[in-house]
Amino acid sequence: MSKKILTMKLLKEKYGVCRLDKFDSIPPWAKDSDFFSITKTSDELSIVCAQPDIPDDIKCEKDWRILKIQGPLDFSLIGILASISTILAQKGISIFAVSTYDTDYILIKDRDIYNAIEAFVDEKYEVIN
């Protein structure tokens, strides 16, 4: 049996990627879920959080699922996101990536998640629920 390359964990909830104005404050609803990511730039305030927490009047791309790369990953590791994105690009699956100090999170549309998991398993990645 060949060795698994990396292990990923599928998070249970659906998530949304929201765009707020660059002058907006971080809203309380953005911080209610176990996973959230907040990025502020000179152009926008971008929030990834659990879909049920997002108010209806927020500009948002919904129906994302998250695969967490089990870490922590060392900063010296090279090509992890490149490898993952290449596997999915070959299957026509788009991603949205979020990186933290310890690991990477790959957001994949819910409609594509099981095809993505199958592609990773075929390439010797382990995916757990």
Automatic annotation (TrEMBL):
InterPro entries referenced in this protein's UniProt entry, alphabetically: A9CJY8-like_N (IPR049447), ACT-like_dom_sf (IPR045865), CASTOR_ACT_dom (IPR027795), CASTOR_mTORC1 (IPR051719), UCP008459 (IPR016540)
Coiled coil (UniProt feature): none
A9CJY8-like N-terminal domain location: 13-57
Pfam families assigned to the protein according to its UniProt record, in alphabetical order: A9CJY8-like_N, ACT_7
Domain (CASTOR ACT): residue spans on this chain: 60-119
SUPFAM superfamilies linked to this entry: ACT-like
Gene3D superfamilies per the UniProt record, alphabetical: VC0802-like (3.30.2130.10)
Signal peptide: none
UniProt name for this protein: Uncharacterized protein
Native source organism of the sequence: Marinisporobacter balticus
